[in-house]
Specification:
Number of strands: 23
Strand content: 35-45%
Order of helices and strands: EEEEEEEEEEEEEEEEEEEEHEEE
Number of helices: 1
Shape: globular
Radius of gyration: 24 Å
Helix content: under 10%
């Protein structure tokens, strides 16, 4: 929450193909001696001095990427690839990924901010100490001093690893191993983050890269409640402190990410939409409902909602890469937006897919950066054929403050996942003894 005291800025409906049935997945299995399909990668990207990240995690997979920062979005990741254990080379996922907006409208209509663009969030990284990056490495990034406007280099980017809990837990007898064994491993993430300030708020811009190939973009909001935004008379807040004299003003955080997918190194991946709907009731005494999932290939620019009635989701499919089972590689957007803000056109949808254009960079306030540029992502969707798709993901949070938000405020997180779907024929974390053809597909109990 910013209040009346602000850090000054330093510078100024889609067409779809007919729904088709889901493809029948092959049950053919790869021999343990047969390597997975070769990755489409060539040489590693030349990131320049000090701007490459490469980390082999405990599970055997290696993440690689380049990074830099900008005065608006802050941290930008480029050429993001994952090389699972047993793969001959890295598999590229994203050409670039970054924050595209943090839109903050207040419930009392007193203010509405675009923290990425009009406050230039990327100019204000907070210095990090070694204890802010446990077990990791701090890297230098530029910070613009709000008092004199000078740019200084600070320790502001943390690259570290974190435990993420169970990666899996199972009993191999269930799939026919003669000498059954309980298999369980703890997962590990590569974690990259900065902390950027906007008024009284501090935003943690964090990316988690898991050892199973999952990416988790997330943003955490912390800092302090604005001392100037306690108003007991407007009825738009929650009582904070002694009695009911002070009410912290409620507001939304609508956070957008911009993702430029390059699956297997090519921008020509296709987008597919999946909808699961109830189709009737089955037999038996419980009359269990029946469901059907259908697939739509998205051919035009799209604005869509996940919804509860259709359990809708999307994936980006590689144009050329396949796993060892012959299935196209893809990456699924795993998304929930329970606090969606619908008062602005660009916040009404959870996900947008637009055709790449150089002038379409920010989910809102985009016109600030050039004459003739469209104002926001809702206007980017104008019926064009979806070539070189850019994904925009919107996740909202309605912040109704509480006593516990004092002080400093505990972090509240927003984010989503980019999950591998058929990137490998089996999980890259599958134990070596189980990574065999007899355990891939229908188990062989012979």
């Amino acid at each position: 929450m910013r209040g009346s005291i602000r850090r000054l800025a330093l510078t100024t409906a889609p067409a779809l193909l007919v729904l088709t049935a889901l493809p029948t997945l092959s049950a053919s299995a790869a021999s343990p001696a047969t390597p997975a399909a070769p990755a489409a990668a060539a040489a590693q990207p030349d990131c320049g001095s000090g701007s490459a990240i490469e980390k082999k995690l405990r599970g055997g997979g290696t993440w690689r990427m380049c990074w830099h920062t900008t005065g608006t979005s802050g941290l930008v990741l480029e050429d993001v690839s994952f090389q699972p254990k047993r793969e001959a080379g890295p598999i590229q996922i994203l050409r670039s990924a970054r924050l595209a907006q943090i839109h903050v409208p207040y419930d009392n209509a007193a203010a509405e901010y675009n923290d990425v663009t009009d406050i230039r969030l990327g100019d204000s990284p907070e210095p990090l100490r070694p204890k802010d990056c446990p077990g990791g490495v701090l890297k230098k990034i530029p910070r613009v001093d709000p008092m004199d406007g000078e740019t200084k280099m600070i320790d502001g980017l943390c690259v570290t690893t974190q435990e993420r809990g169970f990666a899996f837990h199972g009993n191999s007898q269930d799939v026919g191993e003669a000498r059954n064994k309980k298999d369980a491993e703890q997962g590990q993430d590569l974690v990259v983050y900065t902390v950027n300030s906007a008024g009284y708020y501090h935003y943690i811009n964090q990316w988690n890269f898991s050892d199973d190939g999952t990416l988790t973009p997330r943003a955490g909001a912390t800092g302090n409640l604005s001392p100037s935004d306690f108003d007991a008379a407007d009825g738009k807040g929650w009582p904070i402190g002694k009695g009911s004299k002070a009410h912290a003003t409620s507001h939304h955080h609508n956070i957008f990410w911009r993702l430029d997918f390059h699956p297997d190194g090519a921008p020509a991946g296709r987008v597919e939409q999946y909808d699961t709907k109830r189709t009737g009731s089955g037999g038996g005494p419980d009359n269990t409902p029946t469901y059907k999932t259908t697939r739509t290939t998205v051919t035009k620019e799209l604005a869509g909602n996940t919804g509860t009635a259709s359990a809708r989701w999307w994936r980006v499919v590689s144009a050329k890469g396949k796993n060892a089972d012959g299935h196209p590689r893809s990456w699924e957007l795993v998304h929930q937006n329970s606090h969606k803000y619908t008062a602005r056109p660009f916040t009404k949808y959870d996900v947008y897919f637009t055709r790449y254009k150089k002038g379409e960079q920010y989910a809102s306030d985009n016109a600030r950066f050039g004459n003739g540029r469209k104002a926001d992502v809702s206007r980017f969707v104008d019926g064009e054929t979806l070539k070189h798709p850019i994904a925009w993901v919107n996740v909202g949070f309605h912040h109704i403050a509480r006593d516990e938000d004092q002080t400093p405020m505990p972090v509240h997180w927003q984010g989503f996942q980019i999950a591998p779907r058929d990137v490998t024929s089996m999980s890259p974390l599958t134990p070596d003894r189980l990574h065999k053809s007899r355990f891939n597909g229908v188990p062989d109990f012979g």
